[in-house]
Design a protein that fits this description.
With about 250 residues, the protein is of the alpha+beta class. It has a single domain, classed as Ribosomal Protein L22, Chain A (Alpha-Beta Complex). Helix content is about 30%, strand content about 30%. It has seven helices and 13 strands.
Length: about 250
């Protein structure tokens, strides 16, 4: 993988209903990871966890010549993992019970979030606690399903940003604003308390398989996105046409 490359990977937890596919994925994991995914009581959660952990290893090994089962991971003070051995790669995972995504870059920090369309209404009900005044003002001008769609975009963008920063929910979501313009552009505005500059980042939104996906990457990273799909996770990857709803800022 070349410096500034950007790769997005899709995998599907339901594919692990096939016991042979699940066993193959489990064979890639460390002893600690094996214990983690097996702790989940519900089969849906078990498949989701196993798919996520296997996909990270598979995606990293396509970016760097290292066997999937040999990767190790260290975490920062906020729990964000990075691969060991250190090879310049950075990655981020996000998952639902229907879709797992992994974003990989070389030489740049990245964040990704995925949410099913149906979560829009639930997120909208959280508006008062997670959206900034300007975001709530813009939502109030929309009607019906448009409000839910905007809430979904805002949430995924915020999640992608705090994950790219590697600090998670230690960053207050209301201090991050995504302002939608009349020209369909989107600007990110950051409160000074976040000690960051929005000019350091660029982002995009995608739709795939009834899910909204937000990507956040450092400006040094390319805007050319390669998208791969693996079904089941250890199958040969297939290129997927990405429906990118624009990179911002333009």
């Amino acid at each position: 993988m070349e410096t500034n490359d950007l790769q997005l990977w899709y995998a599907y937890p339901r594919d692990l209903v096939d016991e042979s596919a699940a066993k193959a994925c489990a064979g890639l994991l460390s002893d600690e990871e094996q214990q983690h995914w097996q702790r989940f009581r519900h089969e849906t959660n078990r498949r989701e966890s196993l798919t996520s952990r296997a996909l990270a290893r598979i995606a990293l090994s396509h970016a760097h010549p290292f066997p999937p089962q040999d990767w190790d991971f260290a975490v920062n003070a906020y729990g964000k993992p990075h691969p060991v051995p250190e090879c310049g790669l950075r990655f981020n995972l996000s998952n639902s019970d229907e879709l797992v995504v992994c974003l990989v870059a070389h030489g740049a920090e990245v964040g990704v979030d995925v949410e099913p369309y149906q979560r829009g209404a639930q997120i909208l009900r959280l508006a008062e606690s997670v959206f900034s005044p300007v975001e709530k003002g813009q939502i109030s001008t929309l009607a019906g399903e448009e409000q839910q769609d905007r809430a979904l975009s805002l949430w995924t963008l915020k999640e992608a940003y705090i994950k790219a920063r590697g600090m998670g929910l230690s960053l207050p979501l209301k201090s991050i604003s995504f302002v939608f313009g009349d020209d369909a552009g989107i600007d990110m505005e950051l409160d000074p308390e976040l000690e960051d500059d929005s000019a350091n980042w660029k982002f995009c939104l995608l739709n795939h398989a009834e899910h909204r996906i937000a990507i956040m990457v450092e400006q040094s990273c390319t805007s050319s996105l390669s998208v791969q799909q693996v079904r089941p996770p250890l199958a040969a990857p297939v290129n997927v046409q990405a429906t990118v709803l624009g990179w911002f800022p333009w």
